[in-house]
């Protein structure tokens, strides 16, 4: 099963966080769990549709700490395994919020 794990912005990273995160990413990559990871531009573009009209609005839209700052796409055997990876991630990065959503489809 594939899961998209996203995290909201938090404190500025320091050298310890970079080191611990690099080890975590290396471990997930070596085990074949990690499919993709990356940071996201807080500006973004919002598309809103109503009937036949589509409105395009340039961001940023929320405070930096509320914006989704990064993501990881993982392939695991269960939801519980995805949650455990999320717990490990939160322990590394500290206070904040993450979301885990199952990805459907091929």
From TrEMBL:
Alphabetical list of InterPro entries matching this protein: Dimeric_a/b-barrel (IPR011008), YCII (IPR005545)
Residue span(s) of domain YCII-related: 1-88
Family, similarity comment: Belongs to the YciI family.
Protein name: YCII-related domain-containing protein
Provenance organism: Actinophytocola oryzae
Lineage: Bacteria, Bacillati, Actinomycetota, Actinomycetes, Pseudonocardiales
């Amino acid at each position: 099963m594939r899961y998209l794990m996203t995290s909201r912005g938090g404190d500025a990273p320091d050298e310890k966080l970079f080191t611990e995160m690099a080890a975590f990413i290396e471990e997930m990559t070596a085990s074949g769990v990690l499919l993709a990871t990356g940071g996201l531009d807080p500006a973004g573009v919002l598309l809103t549709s109503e009937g036949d009209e589509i409105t395009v609005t340039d961001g940023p839209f929320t405070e930096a700490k509320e914006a989704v700052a990064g993501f990881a796409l993982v392939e695991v055997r269960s939801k519980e395994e995805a949650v455990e990876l999320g717990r490990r991630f939160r322990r590394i990065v500290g206070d904040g919020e993450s979301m885990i959503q199952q990805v459907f489809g091929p």
